[in-house]
Specification:
The protein is mainly alpha-helical and about 70 residues long. It has a domain at about 1-15 and about 20-45. Helix content is about 55%, strand content about 0%. It contains three helices and no strands. It has helices at about 1-10, 25-45, 65-70. α1 (about 1-10) runs antiparallel to α2.
């Protein structure tokens, strides 16, 4: 989808397209905003999480209730 938005933004504003068929300000704004949204979401998705100060919980396999639940099933 981001490839399509950027491609349409570039192609529909070139001189190869007739002046009447070129994109106007509204479609350019929508395509630009969607391209920006894709870039922001991609950055947030690929950025490693900040794990400073976060401790992962240790599993307690020796807890009697957990062992009894596993044995009784």
């Amino acid at each position: 989808m981001p490839f399509l938005a950027v491609t349409l933004l570039l192609l529909l504003n070139t001189t190869m397209v007739a002046r009447e068929a070129r994109s106007r300000w509204l479609s350019n704004a929508i395509l630009g905003i969607s391209s920006l949204l894709f870039a922001v979401l991609r950055h947030r998705r690929l950025r490693p999480p900040d794990l400073t100060g976060v401790r992962s919980p240790r599993p307690d396999f020796g807890h009697p209730s957990l062992v009894s639940q596993l044995v009784l099933r």
